[in-house]
Design a protein that fits this description.
434 residues; mainly alpha; Growth Hormone, Chain: A; 2 domains; two-stranded antiparallel ribbon; 2 strands; transmembrane helix; cell membrane; membrane; Multidrug efflux pump Tap; MFS_dom
């Protein structure tokens, strides 16, 4: 008769998951510090807002393609190796910026190139770690909803804590220190994952297909899994509406309605606090209250739409800050919900490609939404823009109630032939370990 595992065995089984989450929080915190320190550094060195904008462009340009390309490499070499390589690359490059600046000097084109490479390295790390999450949560005996809640909370909490700290470091000792902090978090993250996190499955080299074929294979799988396509389409539309809120709508709202740009910080901070709370609360709430992933998705967006309509009434500062908190709270469960479905429905051998592809499609709506929001405020005014955006949320949710594909969100059984990360068209069930 086999005796149950003792406390030491339980700790050993949970340790890899804890280490993975710790590494994710470290790099998310470092990323948030860099969000503040890079523009301050460039502005301080060049004194030019144009150069600062170019630095931001170089730092974000890889987001367009690095995720999709990185997704193929995640499936080729495994999530663990990809995470370690990307962290080492990003940590080394961001550390070179202040080092070169303090020694031989740093020309602006070289700085742009380093920022580009740094972002190129850091972009695929989230998907790489996400590809390891299901196996580690199963091994630790932790519900996937809870594990996703903890992981998705990292960028939100990192931004909430890291951005103010980055500003404080820049004020006290200059932005260079913040870049060293970012470098250290990436390098420590690489060390933690490399030493303490076991690898996931990797297709044997002899069975790998060509790069382009592997990339398009993810698209074919999305077409064969209607629930993934439906979720991606849904998030594409909501990103179009949502990603313009902080950079365009809130600044105008704080200025025109509340009477001063100083309220913008309070609105953003309230939304950030709400998002952190909502993300972490989803784990325990999913056990009894938010048991349906489909209704959680639709319900959260319905609440968001209603709150946007409430902002259209242009309430006073206290109510506006409270509404911003509730908007963040309602948005908190969304990423854990979507990630839970993705991890269960997508074969592990294809997860990197599918995750990167769907993320790229969803993110592509953001710049268009920002432009439309700016034009709408100029053309019809802030109040009607808020009402139009809020009403669109409500209509989208009502239309999605009849979408049969979204009902599969509550069925986490993998499709036939895709269980255990294999069996998708064009893939082999026999996997090596990285």
């Amino acid at each position: 008769m086999t005796s149950p595992p003792g406390p030491d065995a339980t700790v050993r089984e949970r340790r890899p998951l804890v280490v993975l989450l710790l590494a994710h929080y470290l790099s998310s915190f470092g990323n948030a510090v860099t969000v503040v320190t890079i523009p301050l550094y460039v502005l301080g060195v060049t004194g030019s807002s144009v150069s600062t904008g170019l630095a931001g462009f170089a730092n974000t340009l890889p987001l367009i393609f690095a995720g999709a390309v990185g997704g193929v490499w995640i499936d080729r070499i495994g999530g663990k190796r990809m995470s370690v390589v990307c962290d080492l690359l990003a940590g080394t490059v961001i550390g070179l910026i202040p080092l070169l600046n303090d020694t031989v000097g740093l020309a602006l084109p070289v700085l742009m190139g380093l920022l580009f490479v740094r972002s190129l390295g850091s972009t695929p790390t989230g998907a790489a770690r996400q590809s390891l999450l299901k196996g580690l949560s199963d091994r630790a005996g932790v519900r996937l909803e809870s594990a996703n809640s903890w992981m998705q909370g990292a960028p939100r909490l990192g931004l909430l804590v890291g951005a103010p700290l980055g500003g404080l470091l820049a004020a006290v000792s200059g932005p260079v220190v913040g870049m060293y902090v970012d470098s250290a978090t990436f390098l420590l993250s690489a060390l933690l994952v490399g030493v303490a996190v076991p690898g996931g499955p990797v297709a044997p080299a002899a069975e790998r297909q060509g790069f382009v074929r592997q990339l398009t294979e993810g698209l074919r799988l999305v077409k064969q899994l209607p629930v993934i396509g439906a979720m991606t389409s849904f998030v594409f539309v909501t990103n179009f509406l949502d990603d313009a809120f902080t950079p365009v709508i809130l600044p105008v709202y704080s200025d025109q309605v509340l009477g001063g740009g100083q309220y913008l910080g309070w609105l953003v901070a309230a939304s950030g606090c709400g998002a952190v709370a909502g993300t972490f609360l989803y784990g325990p709430a999913s056990k009894r209250l938010l048991t349906s992933r489909r209704w959680t998705l639709l319900g959260c967006f319905l609440v968001i739409g209603g709150l946007r309509l409430a902002l259209g009434g242009q309430p006073n500062a206290v109510l506006s800050i409270a509404i911003s908190f509730l908007l963040g709270l309602a948005a908190g469960p969304l990423n854990p919900v979507l990630s839970t479905v993705m991890l269960n429905k997508v074969p592990q051998a294809l997860f990197g490609r599918v995750f990167a592809l769907t993320s790229a499609v969803a993110m592509s709506a953001a710049p268009v939404g920002i432009l439309v929001a700016g034009w709408a405020i100029h053309g019809i005014g802030l109040r009607w823009t808020l009402l139009a955006f809020g009403a669109t949320y409500v209509v989208l949710v009502l239309v999605s109630l009849r979408n049969r594909a979204l009902r599969e969100m509550d069925n986490l059984t993998p499709p036939p032939g895709t269980a255990d990360g294999g069996g998708a068209p064009g893939t082999d069930k026999e996997l090596a370990r990285d």
